[in-house]
Amino acid sequence: MTKKIIVFPEQSKIYSEILNLARKPISRKKIENKLALSHQQLRRYTAELIDKGLLHSYKRNDEFICSERGYAYLAKLSFNKSDNTILNAYDISREIISLEPDNTLYDARNFMIRYNISRIVIIENQKLVGIITEKDISKFLYSTLTQKRLSEILIKDIMTKRLVTAEFNFSIAKIAKMMLDNNISSVVVSDSEGDPHGIITKTDLVEYYAYHVKNKDKINDSMSEKVYTVFPDENSHMIILLMNTYNISRIVVIDHNKPIGIVTVRDLLPLTPILLEKISDTNHFNDTNIQRSVASRFNSILLAEDIMKRNPITVSMNTALSDAAIIMIRNRISGIPVINNKGLLKGIITKTDIIRALC
Predict the structure, then answer these.
(1) 261 close to 308: Cβ distance less than 8 angstroms
(2) How far apart are CA 18 and CA 68, in angstroms?
(3) Residue among 9, 10, 42 nearest 26 (CA)
(4) In what order do the strands lie in the sheet with 63-65?
(5) Considering only CA atoms, which of 71, 73, 119 is closest in space to residue 99?
């Protein structure tokens, strides 16, 4: 029996029509013709559906397919959007993007930028063996200052081998607690034999909270009051040191205690080839103060104001936590500076803060 597709108010009718046509692999050209859509329109719609985990690419011949899980996901959400027990780990998991241990950091970096993701699952002989993240790459490169090119460094040499996995039927609350207890940002969903079938990230949990958890929590009750900040003229080396020292993913740039920019690990990732090229020109690799030596030669040229995202999105202390979650999902960000009625920085709300509310 075929499941009925249910489309919520925030989804347009066109989504339902595309999903109906994609019950079996079908070419993009055929859908364009059937629905009278331009190539640009269909590309945008399908990208949104793939991002939601409802549509999946099929091989490499310009065809795509919507899995049965996509229909089940929609049906479950429509039943009772406020019941935390309705969706389980498998329901909110996304398709895995993977590489092998002998792939290089150059491959990993390019995959992350191409697919706009922050982590890649490492699989060998169809078995899960590790995971590598943006933070892993940046921390390795900026702390070791290796002379090797990215294409000469193997993923297996720096990937995280200690993995936390979840079973299909684990609850959302249990997944959230697993992430918090293990200080991780993703959990791989596997079957009883240990074969990986999906991945759940902090983003997936925040999206769940944004649209399916209705409560009266305010940002003021969940935000972190400790915020790591720099001034606009601080050199990028200091930003890297702060991130590595305190194991954080973002730095807020302030002027008179008002947030004017934000720098994340992802902002630093595209700079790594340039950094390594500059490092290869120095002869200070035996210097115990190597990081500061390189900073005076290169990193000091790049200031916080050069690499920060300007005019960051901010929220007030009395904003609903679910609204903050929606802002994160819609803008693809992981942290939002919190300000008072005078625009002064009072804290920061992150994905981790929101996930705590799920436990």
Answers:
(1) yes
(2) 14
(3) 42
(4) 26-27, 63-65, 56-58
(5) 119
CATH number corresponding to 13-79: 1.10.10.10
- The Cα-based distances of 356 to 12, 177, 212, 224, 333 in angstroms read 32, 8, 15, 12, 18
What is the Cα–Cα distance from 180 to 335, expressed in whole angstroms?
16
CA–CA dist 333, 230 (Å, integer): 19
- Tell me the three state secondary structure of residue 59: coil
Cβ count within 10 A of residue 226: 9
Say if residues 104 and 153 touch (Cβ distance below 8 Å): yes
Domain 89-212 and domain 219-350 have a common topology: yes
Task: Point out the least confidently predicted range of 34-38, 217-221, 314-318.
Answer: 34-38
Domain boundaries, the chain: 13-79, 89-212, 219-350
3-state secondary structure of 96: coil
Pairing mode, strands 98-99 and 119-124: parallel
Write down the CATH number for the domain with range 219-350. Answer: 3.10.580.10
Does domain 89-212 match CATH 3.10.580.10?
yes
Q: Which residues contact 121 (CB under 8 A, 6 or more apart)?
A: 96, 97, 98, 99, 128, 130, 131, 188, 196, 199
Residue 57's identity, in one-letter code, is S
* Number of alpha helices (DSSP H) and beta strands (DSSP E) in the chain: 17, 16
Q: Does pTM top 0.70 for this prediction?
A: no
Contact 191, 93 (CB under 8 A): no
CA gap 162, 80 in Å, rounded? 36
Q: What is the pLDDT of residues 273-310, one digit of tens each?
A: 444 444 444 443 344 343 443 444 444 478 899 889 99
Task: Find the mean pLDDT for residues 102-109.
Answer: 92
pLDDT of residue 227: 95
- Two tokens, residue 122: 């490492």
In Å, what is the CA distance from 5 to each residue of 2, 47, 69, 177? 9, 19, 11, 32
